[in-house]
Amino acid sequence: MGFWGIGAILWLFGIYSILVLTSFLLKKLKVKYRQIIEWTLIFVYVLSHTLYHLNWDVGSEIYFTNENEPFVGKNQSFIIVFGIENQPKLESNYFTNNKILIPENGILLTSSKKETFKHRYSFPVVGSGEKFSATYFEQYNCYGEKNYKFNYVVGTISDLGEVDYRYRDSIGDLICEKLKNEEFKNNLKVGYENGNYLDQKEVLINYQNLTKLPNGLLKLRNLEYLNVHSNKLKVFPKSVLEFPKLKRLTIGYNEIKTIPEWIGGIKNLESLAVNGNDLTSIPDTLLTLPKLNYLLIRENDFNELEIKETIKKFEQKGVKVQYE
To answer: What CA–CA distances, in Å, run from 176 to 142, 169, 218?
Structure first.
């Protein structure tokens, strides 16, 4: 039945209990027109429940280009960016589905707030919903000098039935550039919690399905600690070489298969966490890093005999290796 099903039953039982208790009190107190009051309460309950059901059961129909071309096909994606000043509002969908017309470039800017959008989608073409997936409300941080932000929803139809996060990341950089150039504006707070962009020493971006590092992140030249574990990078982003002061890099759980030779260029690196990936070996290049003192490598695909020999070499160099 699930959480929501149990919740609905409890809610209905609670309302029913209130009606029974109200009827008992009206009878006990011998209130005049008791039956009229009871029937009025029942009518209000049925009406409110019906309206709630109608409101809950509707959502958005997504169309590309014009209303005659529904959102179907392979590998189509769109992004809705909320809270953009001087942009049209989305149609309301209180009791009927609304039609959302996606521009040809796949980017819909709206002044509507994210709270007004329902995460329920309707597809005119049978079977489209099975291939569709969308994010929930998320906030994109642009980083860079100003660290602009925007709220968005991304949707994708594909044979995999998964959100195309590569699309999200490429479009994210584009929208950040337009915000930076003041091509459009929103009312989200600009900047960092502490100091300006050159004061940022640590950045944590976890569970965001990143397929690459945001372009704006590369502006943080004084970064010393970068934590991007639990994303979808799949390869070591070479852009980390843009952080000359980087001391700690945590990049676990990213489906990474190899550590590149160029990692030897991160001369100030002291700690590297690559746990939870698909690594089969650790390159000797890491032994050339003069300041490396900690290596986290558990939960990979190493050969037991080979990795024990590798660990021994690192420990002889004074590097603490956490494997088990």
So the answer is: 6, 11, 13
